[in-house]
């Protein structure tokens, strides 16, 4: 065995490869989401009761989907070294989904397809980030929460 072989520390992807890794991470995160949501939905009768209305079960399933997506993409963000800002940018785009669902179906589908690309583009340079990027991600999360709250309350 050669002594010249050195282990290289894994680095965060940057540039265009970051967008490709974003899509791969979201696909694998959706697999984890499905597993979490399946286990989550088993407890619907215990949480809502067997004689409850459908709105309790739907709310429980939505919450399970959000928890599953959060867990799945957090896991894949860690595995692919995409970082917490990538995860927050993608999760902000998902949080805006209740507001986006009021748009025509083709735009909703385009939004869902563009979520990984948006997260990858916002965090384009990886770990070497400009000072304003955390503020941009925080603004995206706040905007997504405000849009979702407004769409639900109106």
Percent helix: over 70%
How are helices and strands ordered from N to C? Answer: HHHHHHH
Shape: globular
Low-confidence runs (pLDDT<50, min 5 residues)?
none
Q: Using DSSP, what is the number of strands? A: 0
Largest pleated sheet: none
What would you report as the Rg, rounded to the nearest angstrom? 18 Å
Which secondary-structure class do the elements indicate? mainly alpha
Strand content: under 5%
Ends distance: 68 Å
Number of helices: 7
Mean pLDDT across all amino acids: 81
Tell me what the structure shows:
With 154 residues, the chain is an all-alpha fold. The protein has helices at residues 16-41, 44-48, 54-79, 84-95, 97-100, 105-122, 133-153. The protein is globular and about 65 Å long. The model has no long low-confidence stretch (mean pLDDT 81).
Write a short abstract of this structure.
The protein has 154 residues and is mainly α. It contains seven helices and no strands.
Summarize the helices and strands and which ones pair or pack.
Elements: H1 16-41, H2 44-48, H3 54-79, H4 84-95, H5 97-100, H6 105-122, H7 133-153
What are the main properties of this structure?
mainly alpha; 154 residues
